[in-house]
């Protein structure tokens, strides 16, 4: 932001949409890309809502990518969006190279039934799904989850994950700050040469195939 001369994607917050008289029409779970001058360059309203969230929050309606001078094209998602490959596809079709996902995801979220099967259920969900998204979407996935004093609840799994490499940094449990330099180089281009994912997405005959 302006004082610190940093770009920032904060965790999501509740955003009210009001009419001309100030009456609240909708609440959205929203995150932002804020540049070094303190300007909001991208606002994303969460499209895929977690079950209980639907009782209080409206779903957003679109996925947007911003083309930054420093990093190229980036897109934003929030938390439970991770479970929907379609959300990632929309961003990749718009050219996103980085996809950032601020998150509040806890071990008990799988419920008593899930915990009865495996207390590490959500850890497995997060780690396997992020790796899959990075490979299947040919993108750099930056996932930032809540840490806290109770590692059995606030398990983290924050990570930066790339195709071919998998996670290049990952940490769990307690709150911490990690400074990492990400140099994509030609990795996304090399992955595209191998798998042609972005070319396929851009094709007018993209799945389901037109007859």
TrEMBL record:
It comes from the Eukaryota. It comes from Sporothrix bragantina. The keyword Iron does not apply. This is CN hydrolase domain-containing protein. The keyword Hydrolase applies. SUPFAM superfamilies: Carbon-nitrogen hydrolase. Residues 1-184 form the CN hydrolase domain. Keywords: Hydrolase. It holds the Pfam family CN_hydrolase.
């Amino acid at each position: 932001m302006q004082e610190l001369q940093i770009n920032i994607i904060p965790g999501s917050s509740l955003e009210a949409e009001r009419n001309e008289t100030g009456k609240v029409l909708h609440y959205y779970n929203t995150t932002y890309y804020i540049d070094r001058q303190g300007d909001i360059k991208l606002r994303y309203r969460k499209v895929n809502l977690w079950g209980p969230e639907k009782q209080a929050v409206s779903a957003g309606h679109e996925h947007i990518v911003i083309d930054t001078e420093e990093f190229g094209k980036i897109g934003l998602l929030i938390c439970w969006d991770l479970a929907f490959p379609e959300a990632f596809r929309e961003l990749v079709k718009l050219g996103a190279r980085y996809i950032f996902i601020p998150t509040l995801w806890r071990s008990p979220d799988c419920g008593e039934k899930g915990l009865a099967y495996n207390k590490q259920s959500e850890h497995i969900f997060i780690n396997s799904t992020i790796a899959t998204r990075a490979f299947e979407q040919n993108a750099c996935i930056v996932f930032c989850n809540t840490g806290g004093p109770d590692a059995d609840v606030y398990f983290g799994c924050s990570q930066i994950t790339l195709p071919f490499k998998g996670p290049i940094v990952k940490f769990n449990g307690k709150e911490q700050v990690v400074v990492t330099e990400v140099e994509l180089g030609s990795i996304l281009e090399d992955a595209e040469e191998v798998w042609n994912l972005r070319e396929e997405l851009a094709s007018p005959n993209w799945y389901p195939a037109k007859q």
